[in-house]
Amino acid sequence: MNKRFNLKIYSKLLFLIITTSCLFFLLYIFLYVYTIQQEKEVYKTTNTQFSTEVVTLSQLNSKTHLATLNDVTFWDGLYDFAKIKDISWYNQFVVEEFKSYEIDYVGVYNLSNEFIVKTSTSKIKTENFIPKQVLTDLYSKKVSQFYMRIPEGIIEVFGATIHPSDDPKKNKHKPSGYFIMARLLDKNYFNNLQKISSSQASLVYNDTDTITDKDNVTKVLVLKDWGNKVVSEIVFKRPFNLDFRSTKKILSIIILAFILNIIIYLYYSRKWMYEPLKTITNILETGNEEAIKVLKKSPGEFGYIGNLFEENSNQKRQLLIAKQKAEESDKLKSSFLANVSHEIRTPMNAIIGFSDLLNDSTLSKNDKSEYLQIIRNSGSNLVSIIEDLLEMSKIDANQISPKLVGFDLNKCLHDLYDTIKVTIPAEKNIDFYVIDNPNPITKNILSDEVKLKQIITNLITNAIKYTNNGKVGFGYVVHEKEKFLEITVRDSGIGIDKKNVSVIFDRFRRIEDDFSVELSGLGLGLAICKAYVEMLGGTIQVESTVGEGSTFIFSIPLKYDKNNLPKKPDEEIVNDIETNSDIVILIAEDDNINFLLLKKILELKNYTTIRAVNGQEAVTICSTNPAIDLVFMDIKMPVMDGYTAFDKIKVFLPNLPVIAQTAHSSSEDKERVLQAGFTDYITKPLDKEKIFELLDDLFRKDKK
């Protein structure tokens, strides 16, 4: 039983609509039938009332003339006139009173039915039109009223016998004659009739003209002659103000509107309810994304549900992507950890291993020199690995932003050429060159010089790494119209296959082949390049053929520096700077090994050193020892950091050179140090030659 009546929501709604519609339709039929019956009843009653009203008004319309006729026919003078035919009396009394009778014709006949005299308006020109039979009947009837047709038209005739005034019942004396009054049923007659009856009145001559209609109530007044024969008919029509046709039209409009409403309701209920519910069922069963798009277009709550389904679908997709990324990241993480472990252990193995070998007192000078060079190179590789990891972590944390400055691009590229050329291993047979540009830039460009250098350096270093014999070149092309700068790094190395081209810029991705296995690196260099290029608002791509080489092309927006300053001539470098043991240098360093290393490096040039183990102690020593010529300030120290200590020292020794030393080596860290007001900065691990070059430049300026 339950299954039999277990209808779906749309079916229930449809059943409710049909049931309600049937009830409404039955109500409509009842109202329509009732309206028709009421219309007939009201029309019948109104028509009866109108007929009674017309008959009464017709009688009243003739009653005045009958009263006049009655008064005149009891006139003694007229009684005598009918006998003696005194025309002068007639003219004096009857003709003068003619207008007051409001008729069109007056005629007098004697008792022998002979015509005596008549008076009429211009409407009736016929003199004697009363048949003798009428006069004969009138003798016995005394008074008569009838209608007849004459050449001028239909007239209403009033006739009576003439008696003396002492015979009011007309039974004492014989009449002396007959008095006839008539009025023409002309336009004025009907205008007056229409006015008093408040209806339209007209003559008809056949039955077809008397057909009634439901728009009017009608009354037909039959005009009969003296022999009771029909002469004509007067039809009275009055608008039937209670027009039930309007009511029926309204009811018809209501039923049509209802049917139309049902059709519209069924259409939109199917469109807005059945189809969305069907789509929702489809989505829940299959997860069809096209169905979700269709549901989103639905109005109201279903569109919102479509958005929820889309969000849910997107979340599922994102979860799936996240899952895939997590799985890939897990694989990359495992590969990365293995790679990092290998890449860090390799230089550490060399550093520790060759450090142990240096303890052998029997080693020759050449062996010691070779071992030290290996340790130095391994240390540099280790620092490079750490710096790449730190740089990528800063990129991920959005801690790096471009610093736009104006610089000479040609000088920048040639400086890079000079710097990189000397680092190319001697065992590699590489022709390193700058690609000639026939249209070089003559203005300074506006970009991040440090990051641009790092991008180009990474690409060139990568090209040299994978090229043993061949060429490595780099250069640029200016696209003035398109407003971008295109920089190219080209090599003739081992090349990259298509499988690896698509992932070459991904993190921790390296080309896995027999050649690359021999090379070190985490696979972050190209990922850093891509991040920096996009940070500068550009794009990077690679074209490569296995065995022929690779070409890396990246483009950045071309902007010129509007504040172009003239270049200062390079100062002449004086290499022979005598060291002075009287120069006192304060080393603010909390780590003993770092202090010892820097102390030993400075003692090679006979500088006198003093140590402070924290920032507070450095401030105290500077305030109590005026002999200090320079301070090496570690940035990160206990008690008081290097920035705070520097600010306090500058209060009382504003001209004292202070060089920051830090383990942070990024361009952002360098910029922060220089903006704080430090004279310069050095990074750990310390480079002896860079420290000596820095001190030589500093003290040379002081001597000048």
Low-pLDDT regions: 1-5, 514-519, 566-578
Shape: rod-shaped
In terms of DSSP E residues, the strand content is: 15-25%
Described by strand count, sense and barrel closure, the largest sheet is: 5 strands, antiparallel
**CATH class descriptor of the largest domain:** Alpha Beta
Number of discrete domains:
4
Number of DSSP-assigned strands: 20
User: Helical stretch count?
Assistant: 18
* Category by helix and strand content: alpha/beta
> How far apart are the first and last residues' alpha carbons, in Å?
111 Å
Rg computed from alpha carbons, rounded to a whole number of angstroms: 65 Å
Helix coverage percent: 40-55%
Across the major sheet, the strand order is: 2-1-5-4-3
Assign the CATH superfamily of the largest domain. Answer: LuxQ periplasmic domain, N-terminal subdomain
Q: The CATH topology of the largest domain is what?
A: Beta-Lactamase
The pLDDT mean sits at 82
- Gross CATH architecture of the largest domain: 2-Layer Sandwich
